[in-house]
Specification:
Structural class: alpha+beta
Distance between the termini: 32 Å
Largest sheet: 5 strands, antiparallel
Radius of gyration: 17 Å
Strand content: 25-35%
Strand order of the largest sheet: 4-3-2-1-5
C-alpha cells in the first residue's frame, strides 16, 4: 500500500509511537492515531516515509518519519473531490469547499485534488477552515500540459470565492502554477531541495 505514496497524501498510523524523530512537545499532547499525518518531501536511506504533523494552530507544524508497516490507511488529494461527497460535507458553506465543488463539476484533462487545510478538514471532519481560508490545489502532470487549459484553470480559481493556489506535480517535483504562467520559469520543489527550472519535466536541468 505504501509503495506509491506521494507528497500531500494523508496517512493514518497504527500506533502513537509510529512517529519517529518528532521533538515538538505539543505533538505528544495533541496528536493521536485518529488524526492523519501528511507525506512531505524528503528522502530516508532506510526507507522511512517523511511526514508532517498538523497541530491546532497555524504555527504548529512538525516534521517526522514513519516506517511503511505502520501505515493503516491512505487518502490522496484526488479522493477528496467527489462532487457528492463535497455536497455532503459539513463545510460546504465555506468558500474553499464551494470552489472545490465548482472545479469538481467540470471536466479537466488531468487528475487533480485538494491539499492543505481543506484536505485535512474534508478527510477528518475537523473544522480547520473558515470563511477566509485559502484553497490549496494539486494537479498531477506526468507529461507537459497544454498552456491554454492551464490558463482556463487559473482563470476559474481566480473568480473571487477565496484565494486559491495550485501546485503542479511532475515526475521530478512540484511547482507553483501561477509562477509558471507568469514567468515561464519555476522553483521546483524536489525531495532533495528546491531547484530553479525552465522545464520542470526535464530531469537533466
Amino acid at each position: 500500500m505504501t509503495t506509491s505514496l506521494r507528497p500531500h497524501d494523508l496517512l493514518w498510523l497504527s500506533a502513537r509511537d509510529a512517529l519517529e524523530e518528532v521533538s515538538e512537545p505539543w505533538v505528544a499532547e495533541i496528536w493521536h492515531i485518529g488524526l492523519p499525518v501528511v507525506v512531505r518531501r524528503d528522502v530516508d536511506v532506510s526507507g522511512r516515509i517523511p511526514v508532517g504533523v498538523r497541530g491546532l494552530r497555524r504555527d504548529q507544524r512538525a516534521a517526522g518519519w514513519v516506517r511503511p508497516e505502520q501505515v493503516n490507511r491512505v487518502v490522496s488529494p484526488e479522493q477528496l473531490i467527489a462532487p457528492q461527497a463535497l455536497l455532503r460535507s459539513p463545510f460546504i458553506s465555506q468558500p474553499p469547499v464551494q470552489l472545490a465543488l465548482q472545479l469538481a463539476q467540470q471536466n479537466w484533462p488531468w487528475p487533480w485534488g485538494v491539499t492543505g487545510s481543506t484536505a485535512y478538514a474534508l478527510a477528518t471532519g475537523i473544522p480547520v477552515i473558515h470563511a477566509t481560508s485559502d484553497l490549496d490545489l494539486l494537479i498531477r502532470a506526468p507529461q507537459p500540459l497544454a498552456q491554454a487549459e492551464l490558463q482556463r484553470w487559473q482563470q476559474q480559481i481566480s473568480g473571487g470565492l477565496c484565494r486559491a493556489d495550485t501546485q503542479v506535480e511532475t515526475p521530478y517535483g512540484g511547482f507553483a502554477l501561477a509562477e509558471w504562467l507568469r514567468d515561464g520559469r519555476v522553483m521546483l520543489k524536489t525531495n532533495h531541495g528546491p531547484c530553479l527550472m525552465s522545464d520542470p519535466w526535464r530531469r537533466e536541468e
